[in-house]
Write a structure and sequence with these properties.
Layout (H helix, E strand, L loop, with lengths): L1 E10 L2 E7 L3 E6 L6 H13 L23 E10 L2 E10 L4 E8 L2 E5 L1 H12 L3 H7 L1 E2 L6 H4 L2 H11 L4 H26 L8 H89 L2 H61 L4 H52 L15 H89 L6 H28 L2 H32 L3 H99 L4 E6 L5 E5 L2 E4 L5 H23 L5 E5 L7 H13 L6 E6 L10 E7 L5 E5 L2
């Protein structure tokens, strides 16, 4: 892998930066806190996103301090891998800090989205974020990490870094599978025996034979019962036919008896009806002789009735005229009342001034006041936010000053571990000037906030006055609108009343003079009431006499029917005598049928029981056969598991031997590579490095072996660096990965000039394995011994910039 180009936007201290990465040993220099390490952390963030080993203080700390919610934090990275060109962009934006990413290979999009891009990068690089930092990125103060941990943990860490620890997982997995196979085989063995330890398969065969014999007996019995069932069915059919025949004779006898009874009852009713008709005919003939006298009185009644109806019409016209005159008077009174109300409404409107123009002016002033208040509040919030930021900066600067003062001029720098010396006074002076500038800005911001608060208070008072004035004008406006609506309704009502009065007057004129005599009307009504009984009697007599011809015809028809029904009664009586039905014979045949039917039903029930027993035995046989198949399957599985168990036991032993062989070759290889590097860096002063079984380091000094703790801090750091470089080389060689670059962060803290030069020369020789070696340091005097220099500086606004020096 070779880095070519990176572009940062709002990433930590870099608001906007562009950097090209040359080949060889590249020094990234700059003052402490300018963002040297941040520059290469951006590479890992672009590759793997917000992983815990990538971001130091959560994803909230990735975005540049002071960036607005709408700003985007992004890293665009271009690199080469396996001969292909990669373009990777990862960004984070919004209040929720939503992450997005895209990956292009040779200009073609291969992954889109945060998780998808991370998975694609992991697959193509052949390592996740943890492996990346172990093999590529040696962070500040991490070189002596192996020496500071317990021996057992140190051994595990080295094996994990070299990718050997996965063999433990393989051995554990094989052992787990072997235990599982053994447990399953033991469980299956238990399933082949019963509680007394007897062979389930043998017992099952004996049970199948016993049930088969019982099933054969049931089948023989079923054949015999089938013959008996056929005989019983024939007997039931014969007895049922005899009983049903007699049952038919019984129903016929009952029908004839019912018909005789009906004929006798009908003849009695017919004779009574004939007598009633004769009496009715006699009465009608008597009434017909008195009809002429009633007819004369009916004519007088009709004459009086016509006169009464004429007088009713005159009375209705008289009453209608009275109502019209009354309605006209009421309409005129209502019109006068509305005219009075209209004058009162007009007087009310004249007393109210025109408020619409004044209301519009007040509302415009109120809107301007509200806008001004909003603007002042926004400016105040911005000023308070800036004040809080400056207070935090002042506190941080004071804390850094206190830390430097406590350490003193002769102490080591907490970042690079070098003695501060002359930089001590410069740091204190720079921090003091910074605090003074921040304090002045805080005082100025305090005055600005007070002025904004005063303006806000004045605007609030003006807003209150304008709101009260608008409230009064709105109330007057509502009164004007109410009076105008009232005036409109009055005018509308006056128009309606005028139209209604005109219609009533026209209708009254059209009626003219109406002459009505109440006395004559009352006399006609009394006379009609007196003649009403005679009118009713005449109408009733006419209606009754219409019945006379009908009654005479009905009398003749009834006499004919009576003679016919008497003949039918004689015929039906003879038919019943000829049938000669006997109820005792019917009962005997019914009893015989029920006896043979019960016998057949009992036989059928027995056959059902036998059939059920046969089905039960067949079901039991099927279950036994299925159980036999299950036992066969269990035996087959048991044999297969025993075969697998033997194979897994052999495989487990092979993998244990292989793991020990691999581990036994790791220590000599690391010792040889580390020794070569140490010899180069110390110009042959030390004979080499040896690692024991716990990966504890020993140095050969003048032919004698000594533990690493015996030597000074410089030699210790140098030995740890050699081991770290040896591990990285071994990782590259073993994995076959194309990740041929590495990052070293502040590794010169305790080395003198000669050692620094040797380290740089050795790093130059390592370019055969590592095409790019990125060296992070705040020491400027390494510039002459590296291939290129990337200078990181802090700008006046607190952000950082990076540039490739010539």
């Amino acid at each position: 892998m070779r880095l070519r180009y990176m572009e940062l936007r709002n990433y930590r201290k870099f608001r906007e930066a562009k950097v090209e990465f040359p080949d060889g040993v590249v020094a990234i220099v700059g003052q402490n806190g300018t963002g040297k390490t941040t520059l290469l952390e951006a590479v890992s963030w672009a590759l793997y996103g917000n992983e815990s080993s990538v971001v130091r203080n959560g994803k909230e700390g990735v975005i540049t301090t002071g960036a607005s919610l709408g700003d985007t934090c992004s890293v665009s990275l271009e690199f080469e891998l396996g001969g292909d060109g990669y373009h990777l962009v990862r960004s984070m934006r919004g209040k929720e800090m939503r992450v997005d990413a895209s990956l292009e290979v040779n200009g073609e999009l291969v992954a889109k989205g945060d998780r998808a891009v991370t998975e694609a990068v992991t697959t193509r690089l052949g390592m996740d974020h943890r492996a990346f930092f172990i093999s590529v990125f040696a962070k500040q103060k991490d070189l002596n990490a192996l020496a500071n941990i317990k021996p057992a943990e140190r051994k595990k860490l080295v094996l994990r870094m070299l990718g050997v620890d996965f063999l433990n997982d393989v051995v554990t997995s094989v052992d787990r599978d072997a235990r599982s196979a053994k447990n399953q085989a033991e469980q299956l063995q238990l399933l082949l025996k019963d509680q007394q330890g007897r062979d389930k398969e043998k017992l099952l065969r004996e049970d199948i034979s016993a049930h088969q014999a019982e099933l054969e007996k049931i089948k023989v019995k079923e054949v015999a019962m089938t013959g008996e069932k056929l005989q019983a069915a024939a007997l039931v059919s014969e007895s049922r036919a005899l009983w049903e025949n007699e049952e038919g004779r019984y129903r016929l006898d009952v029908a004839l008896e019912r018909r005789l009874t009906g004929l006798r009852v009908g003849l009695g009713s017919r004779r009574e009806h004939l007598a009633r008709l004769q009496r009715e005919i006699d009465e009608l003939r008597k009434l017909s002789s008195s009809l002429p006298g009633l007819e004369l009185q009916e004519k007088e009644y009709q004459k009086v009735r016509a006169e009464t109806e004429r007088m009713n019409l005159l009375r209705e016209g008289h009453l209608r005229k009275q109502r019209l005159e009354e309605d006209i008077g009421n309409a005129r009174k209502e019109r006068d009342d509305l005219e009075t109300e209209k004058e009162q409404t007009a007087q009310g409107l004249s007393r109210l001034p025109d408020v619409e123009g004044r209301l519009s002016t007040v509302e415009t002033s109120l809107e301007e006041t509200i806008d001004t208040t909003t603007t002042i509040a926004s400016q105040k919030r911005l000023a308070e936010s800036e004040r809080d930021r400056l207070q935090r900066s002042l506190s941080e600067s004071a804390q850094r000053t206190a830390e430097i003062e406590v350490l003193g001029e002769e102490s080591n720098c907490p970042t690079c571990l070098r003695r501060m010396g002359g930089q001590y006074a410069d740091l204190l002076r720079r921090y003091t000037e910074e605090q003074g500038s921040i304090s002045n800005n805080l005082v100025e911001l305090g005055r600005t906030i007070e002025e904004l608060e005063g303006q806000r208070s004045k605007n609030e008072q003006r807003k209150k006055v304008l709101e009260d004035r608008r409230k009064d004008l709105l109330e007057q406006s509502r009164k004007v609108a109410s009076l105008k609506e009232r005036e409109r309704k009055i005018l509308q009502s006056l128009e309606i009343i005028a139209e209604r009065t005109d219609v009533l007057e026209k209708e009254l004129t059209a009626m003219g003079v109406v002459e009505y005599d109440q006395t004559a009307h009352d006399h006609a009504r009394r006379k009609m009431i007196d003649l009403e009984p005679i009118h009713l009697a005449f109408g009733k007599a006419q209606t009754i006499l219409e019945r006379l011809p009908l009654a005479e015809t009905e009398h003749r028809d009834t006499s004919s029917i009576l003679i016919e029904e008497e003949g039918q009664l004689s015929v039906v009586s003879q038919e019943r005598n000829d049938l000669n039905f006997d109820a005792l014979v019917l009962q005997e045949r019914k009893t015989r049928y029920e006896e043979v039917r019960d016998k057949e039903e009992k036989l059928a029930q027995e056959m059902v029981r036998v059939d059920g027993e046969k089905r039960r035995l067949i079901s039991v046989m099927e279950g036994l056969n299925k159980r036999s198949e299950e036992l066969d399957e269990i035996k087959t599985r048991h044999q297969a598991l025993m075969t697998d168990l033997e194979m897994l036991n052999r495989l487990g032993q092979v993998m244990r031997d292989f793991k020990e062989n691999v581990i036994s070759r790791v220590i000599p290889t690391l010792s040889n590579v580390s020794s070569d590097l140490l010899s180069q860096l110390t110009e042959g002063k030390y004979g080499g490095i040896r690692l024991d079984e716990e990966y504890q380091m020993y140095l050969y000094d003048q032919g004698q072996e000594h533990p690493l703790e015996r030597f000074s801090g410089g030699e210790t750091d140098l030995a740890n660096l050699c081991l770290r470089l040896a591990i990285s080389r071994m990782i590259m060689e073993r994995s076959g990965s194309q990740m041929n670059f590495m990052v070293l962060d502040e590794i010169f803290g305790s080395q003198d000039q000669s050692r620094k030069r040797n380290i740089l020369e050795t790093l130059g020789q390592l370019q055969k394995q590592f095409r790019q070696i990125l060296l992070i340091t705040h020491i400027d005097d390494v510039k002459d011994n590296v291939s290129a220099v990337l200078k990181v500086t802090e700008k006046e606004d607190g952000s950082s910039a990076v540039a490739l020096e010539d």
